[in-house]
């Protein structure tokens, strides 16, 4: 009999930010396909009966092509396995989860999705930055920065007027900040880069959109990193939020 | 000695979408302030040692004013309690969590935040709608619909060109759809209303932005509901996704 595929949103990477449903799926798994974005450290404990397969795309290493990952999911499920595809954050936020679900469904393999804590929301919070704050930000726009945008897109990204969160945005950060400034964003709009959110070595750098361009980017930024642009970033600079950031860090 | 306040993102309402960290905070709680948006059903089991205080704002009932909730958090913590403020979704997505954190920090009460699964992302997924899909949507904008927008805001919300998710958007849905159409959104852009996501009686209605206006809104829509506008909604209509939606529903 055919097995199943369960896409599990693993959250930003700290084990205790996994959901109970995600934990249950891993406990029951025969095979787990994981990558560098989900919780990895305690994976052997979380999925004691599973074969663990690293399909990660570490920068500089040869990635497993997406169609091959999808073929692996289907192949193991057809062999009768409970397969968990463990992903960072939420499976439907730039994780290609939608493609994996469609591939399974088309192949007749039962597939379910366990949502996860999105790094786009949680990682700014770990740095003391609330993505929305009454009176400061009424919207949150989450984008992938893997390629830069068109001029008209910058106008709207700025025009929406709320908080802008960029995932996978380190490599294109100069272009994106330049585009936003050309679209009329004031140069002193605060920008935060949060590296390794919720993980050992978490680091927050607060600057401005113009300063990023002037300095030629954020040197030495390490992946994974989340970029936050907007008035809410200023809350992280107040002493209240510095205390909070320390507390949150201490709890991690 | 002063206690602590922990804001816990409870996710969309199904108990198993709580995080392990959220579960641990509840297990350790002396006092839990909850409302109608978080997981309620098994709260007595999750927090067996806690006094449970409903600060919910059920429609039509007298809500507890926000400053009073903040005063309660501080008062119980000062009395030495481990206080959990259990919120629906993630505490920093339109939950006034940021205000509660600031109130505690200003009062000198140690406060930490446990992020949660945001309904803005997870509830569309429960209906088979991925908020991003390669080639269809490169951005996700999350807004609160509690009051309508200005004309210029609609232009940008439409112009960003990705997926638009509206929380608390049932009451203003006609105005918002009218505003988006006036800003140039094509009338046939698909719109989904997902009621009671992940809860018994989950229901998805798929229509178009123009149809909402023509019909004078979505009658009989029940809160909580999440509105999704954009090309990704069409994925929910394909048979592949109908199967998925059934599977996901069956798992719930």
Automatic annotation (TrEMBL), chains A, B:
Keywords: Methyltransferase, Porphyrin biosynthesis, S-adenosyl-L-methionine, Transferase
Enzyme Commission identifier(s): 2.1.1.107
Residue span, Tetrapyrrole methylase domain: 4-212
Enzyme class: transferase
GO terms, biological process: methylation; siroheme biosynthetic process
GO terms assigned for molecular function: uroporphyrin-III C-methyltransferase activity
Protein name: uroporphyrinogen-III C-methyltransferase
Organism: Serinicoccus chungangensis
Parent-protein residues present: 89 to 340 of 340
């Amino acid at each position: 009999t055919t097995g199943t595929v369960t896409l599990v949103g693993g959250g930003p990477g700290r084990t205790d930010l996994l959901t109970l449903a995600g934990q249950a799926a891993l406990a029951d798994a025969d095979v787990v396909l994981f990558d560098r974005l989900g919780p990895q450290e305690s994976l052997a404990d979380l999925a004691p009966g599973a074969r663990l397969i690293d399909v990660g795309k570490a920068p500089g290493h040869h990635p497993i092509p997406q169609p091959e990952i999808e073929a692996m999911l289907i192949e193991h499920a057809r062999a009768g396995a409970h397969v968990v595809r463990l992903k960072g954050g939420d499976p439907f936020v730039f994780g290609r989860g939608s493609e994996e679900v469609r591939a399974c469904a088309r192949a007749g393999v039962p597939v379910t999705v366990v949502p996860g804590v999105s790094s786009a929301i949680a990682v700014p919070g770990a740095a003391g930055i609330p993505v929305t704050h009454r009176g400061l930000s009424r919207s949150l726009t989450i984008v992938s920065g893997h390629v830069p945008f068109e001029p008209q897109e910058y106008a709207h990204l700025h025009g929406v007027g709320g908080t802008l969160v960029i995932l996978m945005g380190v490599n294109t950060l100069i272009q994106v900040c330049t585009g936003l400034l050309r679209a009329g964003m004031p140069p002193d709009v605060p920008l935060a880069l949060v590296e390794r959110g919720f993980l050992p070595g978490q680091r927050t750098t607060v600057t401005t959109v113009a300063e990023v361009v002037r300095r030629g980017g954020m040197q030495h930024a390490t992946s994974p990193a989340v970029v936050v642009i907007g008035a809410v970033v200023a809350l992280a600079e107040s002493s209240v939020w510095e205390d909070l950031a320390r507390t949150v860090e201490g709890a991690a």
